[in-house]
Amino acid sequence: MTDATREAEIRRLFYREHWKIGTIAAQLGVHHDTVVRALNRPAAPVAPAPRAWGVDAYLPAVADILQRYPSLTATRLHQMIRERGYSGGVTQLRRAVVHHKLRPERKPDVFATRVPLPADEAQVDWATLGKVRVGRTERHVYALLVVLPYSRDCFVGFYHDMKLATLIEAHVDAFELFGGVPRRILYDNMKTAVVDRVGDAVRYHPTLLALSDYYGFEPVACRPRRPNEKGNVERRVRDLRDSMLAGTSYAARGQYIDAFAKWRTEVLHTRAHSRAGAETVGDAAARERSLLLPLPREPFAAFPLQGMRVGKQAWLTLDTNRYSVPPRYVGKTVSMLATHDRVCVLDNDKVVCTHKRSWDKHGDHQLDEHAKQIRELRPRSREHAGRARLITACPSAAQLLQRLIEEDEPTAHHTRVLNQLVETHGAEAVQGAIAQAIERGTPRAASVRMLLLGGGKATGAALAAPIALPAHIADMDHTRTTHNLGDYDACTTPRRR
Fold it and tell me: Is residue 240 domain-shared with residue 332, that is, in the same domain?
């Protein structure tokens, strides 16, 4: 009797037949301690044999499929076997695959150490940083990192979207910062770079190919689920979060840009470069800069032109925001070039006007010259423009004007006075005074003025600015001395004889 058989018999007699330990030892001719050790030792697990349910006949086909597609899921494998006549369930199939070891063992990944060459390669990846408040809405802040593995220098651009035009703009900005172009750039399989991929066959976005042709670099897509191929940019993302962003908070995109410029100069470029002894990252970046491909004379046009027809109100709309154009272009088709910071309106090759790009929503952005031109053409447009300016500065003014309209009272005077109060006291103070006037049931410009001057006990309202009178008027303010009329009365009163 083997040891395994003896232990199995001991456990059977003890647990099933309820024999005592001494009786088992005497019956089997073993020592008392042998019985105790057998009872204390856990039983070896036995893999359950799979239920056939006809699966055995399909095992050769299953083995052949798994040899060609080792990572095929059990669900998909079950579908393929059912098409061949198998009527069992996926659980039985899965157990049969495990029991018969039909799935080939996956070879472990072995990574070779890559030694980057100067000016040879750059790695690109996106990172999501959070949200910032922009006017009445919130916008995401995304960071695009471009890292040079040899010098470990990097570019970080901060944007409010991850669209293709933004990706192209970030490349142009990175090349300008580096002072040249690396010979190839590695990408994750982002949709803005890789349109389609089948195995090693990659189809890149046409705009990215146009960019690579313009600057002379080769785009290279990393293999899926191979983060080690762009390990330099992955480490820089962690470095960005742990070093630059840790323990800080930024309220605007511009603050991120300023913080990175300072961090790159004061922190990154002062770090020791491990491959070059006492050399710093900044020294290695300067040396690599001379080996990069030269920049072309003009930068690549990152943002495509959009043909747009100017409406009767002389506005163009982009991302819910309206931008003014000269009224002479009403009814004409112009081109809009929208970068991350600017909105440029073009008439063929002529620049019509330029606006600062707004990332707020539902805002009107009108240049003063355009407003003046409209007022000259349409005198009544001054009232509408003033109303729009007032509501933009003080949203509660819309309710006040609506109350006036319901009372069939003209609003032009009230609009003009309220705009003057905004210029004098500020939008915040006027906003609070308007809300109090509406609450008191006196939606009038005069009531708002009294609240701002302190007559209505407006809490937190700004005081009226002191008025400086002209000198000739101030000199008129003096005390006049009244003449004594007693002598005149004495002369005119007759004397008694």
Answer: no
Residues 236 and 192 in one domain: yes
The answer to whether residues 182 and 120 touch, using CB atoms and an 8 Å cutoff, is yes
Question: Which range of residues forms the domain containing residue 331?
Answer: 306-375
Structure token pair of residue 215: 């600057």
Joined together, the tokens standing for residue 93 give 């199939």
- The Cα–Cα gap between 271 and 262 comes to 14
Residue 314 dihedral angles phi and psi, to the nearest 5°? 60, 50
pLDDT higher for 275 or 267? Answer: 267
State the pairing for strand pair 306-309/315-318.
unpaired
**What is the per-residue pLDDT for 462?**
43
Listed in sequence order, the DSSP H helices in 337-426 are 368-377, 381-393, 397-406, 412-425
Residues 256 and 281 in one domain: yes
Angular region, 423: left φ>0, alpha ψ -120 to 50, beta rest = alpha
Indicate if 272 and 146 belong to the same structural domain: yes
For residue range 113-150, what is the model confidence (pLDDT) as tens digits? 566 789 999 999 999 888 998 888 899 999 999 999 99
The partner residues of 124 in beta bridges, in order of sequence, read: 146, 187
User: Chain centroid to CA 186: how far?
Assistant: 22
Pairing of strands 121-134, 137-147: antiparallel
Same domain, 312 and 195: no
Helix, strand, coil in percent for the chain, rounding step 5:
45, 15, 40
Instruction: Determine the average pLDDT of the residues in 344-366.
Output: 89
In a shared domain, residues 135 and 171: yes
Angle at the Cα of 293 from the Cα atoms of 287 and 299, rounded to 5 degrees: 120
- Whole-model pTM over 0.85: no
Domain boundary among 241, 264, 289: 289
Q: Are residues 135 and 223 both part of a single domain? A: yes
User: Do the Cβ atoms of 40 and 32 come closer than 8 Å?
Assistant: no
State the total domains in the chain. 4
Reduced to 3 states (helix: H, G, I; strand: E, B; else coil), residue 47 is coil
pLDDT digits (tens, 9 = 90+) for 200-258: 788 999 999 999 999 999 999 887 666 556 778 888 888 888 888 887 888 888 899 99
pLDDT at residue 288 tops 70:
yes
Q: Do both 215 and 342 map to the same domain?
A: no
Instruction: Indicate whether 77 belongs to any domain.
Output: yes
